[in-house]
Write a structure and sequence with these properties.
Layout lengths: L1 E3 L2 H12 L5 E6 L5 H13 L2 E6 L19 H10 L4 E3 L3 H4 L17 H5 L3 H16 L3 E5 L3 H13 L10 E4 L19 H7 L1 H14 L4 H15 L3 E9 L13 E9 L2 E8 L2
Parallel strand pairs: 1-4, 2-3, 2-5, 3-4, 5-6
Antiparallel strand pairs: 7-8, 8-9
Helix pairs in contact: 6-7, 9-10
Bound molecules: pantoate.
């Protein structure tokens, strides 16, 4: 695996990998890799001749009071994991390589980026869209892979790819991969590392409460009542607050007041200083 930290070397490395028409997949990450990321790498390997992974903790997607400083950085460990998976290229740029002096451009995706995490984390999806477009332009992959835990992020990136007529990758070549969960159902996330042992065991209530709400909706409980039950269950289990618990259309992310084909449940909840998100299909 070649590790590259500057744009000039990246371009040469990508050209060399492409050789005689070989395909290249990109898995963009912020590092602190877990099984969810490695599942993306494996899915990418199954589809492309070569896989590139980017590791960049993107300052523009963190709010001023968020965890940019604390976000786990473990490049040596991540690099060993990726090499063992047969990744060809690790793109690990320094912040100045992505946002050089004078950088002034912002990418903003309205609509799908507005509610849910977009409402609670102003500017977050602008930061995501901006850096992902940059990563796409830097690596110019044939396809890219993202985890569905960040369902709204995936919707924002696909919308951007459609709206801006991206070709490397095209919107259709932006693949989502199902959430990878711990044995107790908690969605894998680099931020799970922030949880104390007590918070970690309480956190398993999140997927359980979501499944409970989904079962209640399936058996005829009105959606608002099922979501009230979910909120109460999470607070009783030790969560401090919920940012949202909403039913939305999986594609458009339009809010839904009742269950419908394609409905998905989205939750963001806080335990201690940690914000956890999850989403599940209703049926
Ligand atoms: O999902 C992430 O890890 C990040 O939001 C991404 C897509 C790598 C952009 O920084």
């Amino acid at each position: 695996m070649q590790t590259v930290t500057t744009l000039g070397v990246l371009r040469k490395a990508v050209d060399a990998l492409r050789g005689d028409g070989a395909t290249l997949a990109l898995v963009p990450t912020m590092g602190a890799l877990h099984e969810g990321h490695l599942a993306l790498v494996r899915a990418a390997k199954a589809r492309a001749d070569h896989v590139a992974v980017s590791i960049f903790v993107n300052p523009r997607q963190f709010g001023p009071k968020e965890d940019f400083g604390a976000y786990p950085r473990q490049l040596a460990r991540d690099s060993a994991l990726l090499a063992a998976e047969g990744v060809a290229l690790l793109w690990a740029p320094a912040p100045g390589e992505v946002y050089p002096e004078g950088y002034a451009t912002n990418v903003s995706v309205a609509g799908v980026g507005d509610g849910l995490c977009g409402a609670d984390r102003p500017g977050h999806f602008d930061g995501v869209a901006t850096v992902v477009l940059k990563l796409f332009n830097q690596v110019r992959p044939d396809m890219a892979f993202f985890g569905e835990k960040d369902w709204q992020q995936l919707a924002v990136i696909r919308r951007m790819a459609r709206d801006l007529d991206l070709t490397r990758p095209a919107a259709e070549a932006i693949h989502g991969f199902p959430i990878v969960r711990e044995a107790d159902g908690l969605a894998m996330s680099s931020r799970n590392a922030y949880l104390s042992p007590e918070q970690r065991s309480a956190a398993a209530a999140l997927p359980a409460a979501m499944q409970g709400a989904i079962a209640a909706i399936a058996s005829g409980t009105p959606v608002p009542q099922a979501l009230d039950g979910l909120r109460a269950g999470l607070i009783a289990a030790g969560f401090d607050s919920l940012d949202y618990a909403e039913l939305r259309d999986a594609d458009s992310l339009a809010p839904l007041g009742r269950s419908a084909p394609g409905a998905r449940l989205f939750v963001a909840a806080r335990i201690g200083g940690t914000r956890l998100i999850d989403n599940m299909a209703i049926s």
